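On clarity, I found the account of how folds are encoded harder to follow than it need be. What matters is that the chain and its backbone geometry are given together, residue for residue. I therefore recommend that a typical entry be quoted early in the introduction. An entry of this sort, consisting of the sequence and the corresponding backbone structure tokens, reads as follows:
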Amino acid sequence: MSFSKKHVLGFSSNGGKLFAVIDEQGTLRIWDTETNALKQEFTPGILESGPCTALTWVTLGAERPKKSRKSQQSQQVSTASEKLYIALGTLKGLVVLYSLATGSIERTLSGDSHNGAVTSITYANDGHLYTVGADSRALAWSLAEERCIGEWSVGPEKPLNIAYLPKSRTLAVASRQIKIYDVDTKELVETCTGHSGEVNAIGSFTCINSSVEYVITTAKMERIISFWKINKKGRNKASTCTLLMEDVAHSLACEVREDGDLRVASVTRNGNIHIYLLNVDSLSDEKYIKPKVSLQIASDGADTVEPIYALAAHFVHDALRPHEILFGYGSRSLLQFERYSPNYGEKLNVIVRTDPKKLYTKKQRADQSGSAEALKMKAPLVRSKEVEYNSALPISKKKIQNDVPMEARLQNLSIQATKLTDGKLQSQSKTQLLMQALHSQDKAMLTAVLGTNDKKTIQITLERLPLEYVSSLLKELSVLLQGKAANVLCALSWLQILATTRTSVLMSEDKEDLRNKLGICLGIAEQRMLCLTEALQ
């Protein structure tokens, strides 16, 4: 069962040196972005707190320096005493603090809790946490007192994401509508409307010169990023600025500099990263803004070029390399991180890298071969001329005679094609070969079977294919669609007949799962249509 439908992840506040992500089963993984090493993996007890559903990075434990020390020394002691924690929201509505030093839950906040899963959590940098849950309530938590200190209703819509705005001391709660609440009075002071779907990613930034605060959001099934100016007044306010994307985004990042330059990055569903260069003083709703550059990651395979999906992006604060961006690619269980300076002279930067799965497999094989080589016994050196090989079987002097004539043996070897009830030949069906290829993941066998473009053979094969192999076949067809033109034609034939013969099976699946399975196929079709439009122009 999948506990985490949306992407729950975040870079640490110490320059993005650590990255935390929660997978579909509610397991927390922490990666070192400099060494690409998995530092910690934590699965909370289902009976105690339940799987993780939300996270945010927290810095605690900074002790106040003594008055007798110098200011510089006291600042160093304070910085050294700070410890990184991760505040986790769970499926049972609890809020716990995970310690990176011990690799376990160090504190469980007491008091009131959510009646259901925690959908989002944020840290206010003043010792307070704010959470929203499936019960349509917002809770305020004190880390010093380790308990809940306040709650208020944010319904009737189920809140999905929140962001804290420090200047105005407000909390932005996003579902389909963005509601702004004053955290001191717990009152609704502002509302923003414009999204047609539920918000699945949120971010915020503050202008350094004017101290104006903005909230940026993107919603499901929408290919735009909306900017909302927060001034604690107004109802049903429209967006201040809109950015365009080529696909739905699940992660946002933004950075404001002292000169007013604004960088925004979005990680889309098809694995690309869009980067926008703006200025906070020139934000306008008159026209939609396209990305300045897009980053696309591809595998270095010799046979087919497959896309590698980016998972998250983070802007690096480095004076020597001001345009650098940190991003992670792969899956939630196998990740690689890299710092990259985009080429803004080209709209599309294609980055060729090795798939993290292949790197992991290669490393695993190297470890196994190293251990096998260490345990391998050395064979003695023997001269071949001095060796006499004897057979272990007894040598019979009688010749074995075969009583079956050659004509009868040839008749036994002939294969007669049997006909099915509808008159079709059973030898045309490749069902058994397809089942064996999907089960063993043999590329040569998959290419031989799926390379068939005969519609009668495809029809017979799919009619006799068991239901449990339909999902695996969809995945292989999506990979085949990314290959050459001949493979694409065969894959389209298989996909068309599969949709007509197995319509009831596909319609009975969950909509989110079916959308995820067919998302790659739809993305490839849209990309090819876009390339055709550009070619015609």
Summary: The two ends are 47 Å apart (CA to CA). Residues 511-536 form the longest helix (26 residues). Residues 115 and 135 are 6 Å apart (CA to CA). The chain has a mean pLDDT of 82.
